[in-house]
Each structure stands twice: as structure tokens, then as C-alpha cells.
Amino acid sequence: MILADIGNTNIHIYKNGKIFNIKKPQKFDEKVYYISVNKDKEKEFLKLNPDAVNLKNYVDFKTNYKNLGIDRIMACNTIQNGVVIDAGSAVTIDIIKEGIHQGGIIAPGLFAFKEAFVKISEVLRVEYKKIDLNSLPKNTNEALIYGSAGLIINTIKKFKGPYFFTGGDGKFLAEFVEGVYIKDLVFRGMIKTIKEKL
Fold it and tell me: Is 5 a catalytic residue?
């Protein structure tokens, strides 16, 4: 069985408990289940895998949020209570109480901040590392971290945990709030949907 999460930048593939990323769609011989937030990549993917099953048609998720992305739904689908942070190209912060989605926030991801800083000035190049967000920055790199990762973390802290992180920058951001990093959180939601509905 292959699980595919077709994102804006990469296609994340889950096979036998391992995750890897591909840039372009490819053909798989096994049964494929997928979700997608990128219509163009999805069309290319389905040309190569016409029998792939779109899990968006099967997931049962309670929310009043309009147009909630399927990747966010899957990341939240296994959490009963807490804050779910998916830190990829964008950072999404979703609040779950008693299995019901309360609402959420979307912010630029760390790479988007990195690109924006350089567009402002060539000298504003950030190297992300953990800093003390309770202290005023004393150098440009710390100031850039505070102005990007710090903004995201301070937004997350407005909500009561526990905090569950996933996505490419999830492990880094989790260090600031003693959050739990779950690399395969989206795929866990997909697996839950398959077990419950298919």
C-alpha cells in the first residue's frame, strides 16, 4: 500500500512505515491512497495512477471551518484534544477539542520568511537555531529568528496545549514549546480513514 500526500512543493510518499519526498508524480504498482492540495500535480499523479483512491471522499471530520485543507484535516484527525501545528511551506495551527475542530490559523513557513528577508536586503540571511525567546535578540541572526519562528511560537502559545507538530520544520519549532513531533501525523490520519471507511 502507498499513501501519497500531494502538496504544493513536494509529494510526500508513505510506504512500509517510511516517508520520502518526490518532486514529480511517478507510477506505483501497489494500491495507492492519496490526498491533494495541488490540483495540477494531482492531475499528473492520476494520469500515472488512475486507480488511486482520493481519501477526501471518505474522511469523517467535524468542523465549521470553511474550505479546510485535506492535509490539515488528516493531521488533526487522530488528535482528540490539543493544538496541531503543520510546519511546511506554510505553517498551520489548528485547535481540536474533544475531537472537534475549533478553528485555525495559517502563517508563512520558515522558508517563506527566509526568502522574504533576503528580498528586503542581501545581508538579512537567517540560519535557524533554537534561541531564548524570553530575551531580546543581541544580533541580526537572533533578531531574524525571533521575527519569524518567534512570531509563530508566540501565536502557538496563545492556545493551551498539548502541542503536536508535523511537517519539515515541525521538529525545530517543537523545541520551543516542549511539543511532540510526529513526522507521520498526516499519514496516521490517512490510515485511520482507510481503516474506518474502506
Answer: no
